[in-house]
Amino acid sequence: MGYLEDMLVRNGVIYRAPDGSRSYIEGSLISNSLVVRNSSGWVTHRIERAANGVDLVVRNISTGYVEARISATSLF
Q1: In terms of C-beta density within 10 A (0-12 exposed, 13-18 middle, 19 or more buried), how is residue 59 classed?
Q2: DSSP states of 36-68 as a string?
């Protein structure tokens, strides 16, 4: 997940702590989307299709707000 993970690190969604703990991306069977889990295993963000059906959005689970938008053209 090279580019996607790099973009999420730059935006602060995925973090790498000095003690070696980190967030990670994982597939979700329930919501048919990708999720970001913190080092404790709690889901913090959901990566899903945008309203246009092509782009991706990163939605914060606790607030419901979209924190980042990933253009489909930037993935290729």
Answers
A1: middle
A2: EE-TTS-EEEEEEE-TTSSSEEEEETTT--EEE
Residue that has been written with the tokens 């889990």 in this structure: 37
User: What's this model's pTM, rounded to 2 decimal places?
Assistant: 0.72
CA distance 53 to 44: 22
Q: Which amino acid is at 47?
A: I
In 3-state terms the chain splits into helix, strand, coil percentages (rounded to 5) of: 15, 40, 45
pLDDT band at 47 (very low <50, low <70, confident <90, very high): confident
Secondary structure class of 35 (helix, strand, coil): strand
Amino acid in the structure at residue 63 = T
Ramachandran category for residue 37: left, alpha or beta (phi over 0 → left; psi -120 to 50 → alpha): beta
